Amino acid sequence: MTTSQLLSSEFTGIDDLTLAEVDAKLKEHQQLLQVLLQSPGSMLSYLPQNDAVAMQNEAHAQPDAEQLFQQALACSAQQELYQAATYYCRAAYTGHLQAQVQLGHCYLKGAGVPKSAVFAYSWFILAALQQDSTAQQACTVLCKHLTLIDQQQAQQLAAERFEKITLQNNE
């Protein structure tokens, strides 16, 4: 789809496209961007190229979940709450149970992250599914203080995070 097509009166937005059409358009634009990136003298040629070997090396150089969790604990002990929450979050997205519980506490208290009972509840849900008793208790307590809509939103977030964690860990 060209710029003129996007600006035409016939095109009213992405809502008019099916998922398959959106996917096809995204692939088309991705290919165009690759061509632009690889064209000598292109305005975009200065951008870093997608190098599969470099990406693999970066993936192997990343710390594992337990290292991230330990870094979070150290930052938390030094009252570096934003940094601690960042490490908890990175570890939690690998599926690290204790990091998920601690990240839930961070959101509940607003420690290094915006205070959000919904986000806290979503992380506690994931940890509770892994039979963590602290998370199960937190879910029971939070459930009494959240509206039904907030509970549903947290469950949706937990489901999305579960899928992301599962897919990441199967790569």
Task: Describe this protein with a few key phrases.
single chain; 171 residues; mainly alpha; 9 helices; 0% strand
Distance between the termini: 33 Å
Number of helices: 9
How many individual β-strands?
0
Structural class category: mainly alpha
The radius of gyration is: 21 Å
* Major sheet: none
| Overall outline | globular
As a percent range, the share of helical residues equals over 70%
In sequence order, what are the helices and strands, one letter per element?
HHHHHHHHH
Strand content: under 5%
Unreliable parts:
51-61
Overall pLDDT score: 80
Q: What is this structure's SSE topology?
A:
Elements: H1 3-7, H2 19-38, H3 52-61, H4 65-77, H5 81-92, H6 97-109, H7 117-129, H8 133-145, H9 148-169
